[in-house]
Amino acid sequence: MALPKLRKINLSSYYGHYSKINDGFLLNLCKNCEFLEEIVIFIYCPLLTQDGIASAIRERPSLTSLSISFRCNGNQNNINSHVIDSFVRLKGLTCLDFWDTEISDELLSSIATEDLPLRRLVLQNCTGYSYAGIVSLLSKCQHIQHLDLRRTEFLNDQHVVQLSLFMRNLVSINLSECDMLTKLALFELVRKCPLLSEIKVRSKWKIFGVRL
Fold it and tell me: Angle 109-199-93 (CA atoms, 0-180°, nearest 5)?
């Protein structure tokens, strides 16, 4: 209540530390900060539950940016239906950033169905989803400018060829540690994405960025 004009908050903690933030804290934050637009939660927080996060998000449907990692007791947890329902209520969401989280094709397809105005999508180190989920989302949300698929282990050249058809507005992409990809994928991105200016590629043996 002391921060009525708050627009952005980062609740992340340092690696190896856990946060005492709980469901009630996040709920009150979303209830009382009517101008809140962006929330970042990259923490190990045993007191914060998925249902608590979902309830808080429903209190602030005007959020435009959400960056989050779902971890409980040190393990990944598949995002449940309550969280998915709260995400698709964010009709002005332009940035969605997941890190080290077990997501699902259901989540990606639900976002696609609602045609949210995403400009930035990060699925870094995420598991639990497949090509069917990501192609469903990108075929509907074709205004994405920044895409991060780091360590998407199933991704191959043919997948990138197909996905590039829906990414004409893409400006940057991170394909680091997608070890099944070859130069063919990079060539197709350059050919199909006229606005593309940066490709990040990292493997176990080398790190390099391509600026176009």
Answer: 35
